[in-house]
Amino acid sequence: MPGYSLIVMLHVVAGVVALAGFWAAALMKKGSPRHRLLGKVYLGAMAAIVVTAVPITVQFAFFRHQPLTALFLAYLIAITGNASWLAWRAVTDKRDWKQMVARVGWKLALWPMVLLAGAVLVVGVQRGQMLFLGFSVIGLWAGWRMWNFSRRGPGRPDWAFRQHYQSMLGAGIATHVAFLSIGMRPVWQWLQAHTPVPPLLIELFPWAAPVLVAVLIGYGLNRKYGGRRGTRPTPSPRMQSPAE
Known about the structure:
This protein is mainly α. The chain has nine helices and no strands.
């Protein structure tokens, strides 16, 4: 594909910016000007990752003739774009959830993810691919939540804040999966060749570890800011939209 090397380079640069931006924003006081600025940098980098990932997926599908890899990459694009879009719109539409679900972006974030998750699930079942099976659950679960939200609306007044940090964690999974599975690939190859650790565990670690860590962090944040609907939530940091 013409210009493919340049696209890959831009994809890698965007990934580095996203990884740095994620942790920089996470370490800042929530709702502070620096937190918002770094959050915008992070989401901008994630948008660049999604855009540059499309031709990379095309390369695997039509030039390298690896349709399963292309399918999984397309699915990763969908769940990454979904999480990034929701994190953004939870801030811009925090006062009107109906406006958020009425946007075209809501459908574009929801249905490609669900359809691709279904395809990944089918392939995972047919071929016994644990990675496909495990990751398909993420998209199906996120799709069910979005569909349920669009029908019933938020169940608590701090829905926008919770949606924001949960979606940022979801986008963070993609950031760290890419870093661990691609950026640290030589490390895993060395471990496979020089340690008695089962190869399957080494292969799954860079994919599963970010998910497990994000689940634990999300659980802690949910408890901190009022985990149950029936309890009085802890006041959450104020989020400001770009217009404020």
